[in-house]
């Protein structure tokens, strides 16, 4: 066998590394009987002292390992290496193993005076699996294939105190198993490793809601293909789980995150309630922007509970409303352990504390009994409305007669006088023979919470159902997953809020730029409204102007305090509304009370304005909450849009990553370009570390969050295991496949089908056209009786005539309570 030779080619190096190991010839590989070497065996008399200069074999950094050509590295070269620290020895052996097609693991150590003095690294196939693992009882998973076969390959290093380096003592490169082809070596265990840049990029992409598989695909694209990624999707999931285990307990971590937000937002409010022995019960929080929104738009409050949005299956309660763009706006959120009355009382009281004691004018819920009791206790003067969609569904499930549901819906949505409502209720109940039903008696007792006849004139900003809440839950599902713990839920919920506020900014921009093209016959009124309302509300107002062109004033009467105008539809003389005009107050009122219920002038008032040649909307018909100036003069909104503390660093990282990826893709094509690119990058990294130190931003960030709060110890989460229920009707004893209520609903006509789609397409139905569907139909084969406006007309000083109108906009509400 010809003796192996070694050549050292000096390269310019910022760290003054004086070697590069490579073979000068393609000489024959060592034979199996020469695979085990000792350092003493490598004293070659033919090699001069200059060639065996120890500095040439010293590895001081990971960059030095990157300069080694492993394909032509001889065993003599390996046995002459010495390493600055033990970690470099492992990195070298692992890199060498990857080029050969095997993986390595750390083995035995020798400790002297409490310090490691010798260390062995072996092939991952070294040794044998213990028999007890092959004969486990009650095994759930299939046992993994056995890979250990007694391989003797190893690298043994010891610490030489004279040169203060780790020196190779023994090196064996003999394997008793097949080696993996280099293409597949990246899949071996010791080579599947996520680097710190990979982890950092994954975390940032995960923070914006990108799933792990999509992140993996993005990283593969950056590296030039999946074959260049040195880890798998499972490794990424394991890294995420590892990070979670390293955090303090969940509640403490969530509180730490809120404390971090509070350092940036001095108005952020959060409150935690714990039970006995510190067991978590519920947490409520709202930031400063939520409080400002509530101050402006908190006259109407809607809240609902959604389920399975977190790891603990705890209910999530979101308080929401509608802003001046007719968009859903969030006032606060809570995670609770149960839905008892005491829980909702606590939540509403915390909401009052956060909102400086402001009580909403109206509240709408899905009818949960605990919610109703809590609202009555905390908001005794608020108008509580029940969700129309839930009532229709309950009518179907309790009476089991589709025709009854149809009649009940007409009665609920029809804009009748109270006397007419009472008469029709008795007729309906008697016709279907359900007088003795408990649900019927309960609904009649709550009629002032759902019947339009009883709640007409109360301001609900267009809310008739909790469809906005359900739509918000659907949007939230895009940002939070059921596996998220409390901390992750709060983080991603705030990200969802950020997106919703971004949409509000877009709406602000759209409303502040350009002028809409006039499209109606009342162009002066239309132009006046265009300068007052936001774009979304103006579109709704314009639809009212279009309807006003189908109306006419048929009679006017002068009274001592006002003028009364009778408005009718063309070709429908029986449809009459009364509009009163109080000149001193410049105030208009209509018998339909839509202005009082919604805050936008109805078509009947607009018809009178056109009749009187009024070119500008009177101030009495403009509700500030719908205008462009809704936020004008409110301090704090401009301060809420600043960059987060880490945002600039994140942007810089993205910029550097963009250029580094291009260098990575183009710099590896040719050897000379690669060497030059590598040296330049190493130089840059050296300069950065010299000026700023090797500090990790994420470690500092985590330390800031958890340094003090981690000392509090763990906190248990109080959860209540509920029996399995149908995801459709929420009742037990069956599932959605056998749900009789679902089958009944599928056969029942849908009456609320022209409204809220989801949060992306906001609910414009609250000012929908007057619909004749519910009122102008036969009631038990008799002509419908129209709304008696005598009560209103007598208050205005006039004589009575029939009139009617109502808001018929519905809600297409998707039941999104259960996330499967």
Structure in words:
Among the domains are: 185 residues, no CATH class; 51 residues. The protein is 38% helix and 14% strand. Strands 3, 4, 5, 6, 7, 8 and 9 form a seven-stranded mixed β-sheet that branches. Strands 10-11-14-13-12-15-16 form a seven-stranded mixed β-sheet, sandwiched between helices. 34% of the residues are buried. Helix 13 packs antiparallel against helix 14, helix 19 runs antiparallel to helix 20 and helix 20 packs across helix 22.
Give a quick precis of the structure.
By secondary structure, the chain is α+β, with helices and mostly antiparallel strands. The protein is built from 27 helices and 20 strands.
* Class inferred from helices and paired strands: alpha+beta
What's the overall average pLDDT, rounded? 78
Number of helices: 27
User: What overall form do the CA principal axes indicate?
Assistant: elongated
Helix content: 25-40%
What would you report as the Rg, rounded to the nearest angstrom?
37 Å
First-to-last CA distance: 69 Å
Number of E-state strands: 20
Low-confidence stretches: 1-52, 641-645, 694-714, 747-820
Bin the strand percentage: 5-15%
Q: Tell me about the biggest sheet? A: 7 strands, mixed
Layout: helices, strands, pairs:
Layout: E1 7-8, E2 21-22, E3 36-38, E4 58-59, H1 62-66, H2 75-79, E5 82-83, H3 86-100, E6 104-112, E7 115-123, H4 131-134, E8 154-160, E9 165-172, H5 196-207, H6 212-223, H7 233-246, H8 250-264, E10 269-274, E11 280-286, H9 288-297, E12 300-306, E13 316-322, E14 328-336, H10 341-354, E15 362-365, H11 369-378, E16 383-386, H12 388-399, H13 402-413, H14 418-432, H15 438-445, H16 452-455, H17 467-477, H18 486-512, H19 523-532, H20 535-548, E17 551-558, E18 563-569, E19 572-582, E20 587-590, H21 594-598, H22 603-611, H23 647-667, H24 671-692, H25 697-706, H26 740-747, H27 790-795
Parallel strand pairs: 4-5, 12-15, 15-16
Antiparallel strand pairs: 1-2, 3-9, 5-9, 6-7, 7-8, 8-9, 10-11, 11-14, 12-13, 13-14, 17-18, 18-19, 19-20
Helix pairs in contact: 5-6, 8-18, 10-11, 12-13, 13-14, 19-20, 20-22
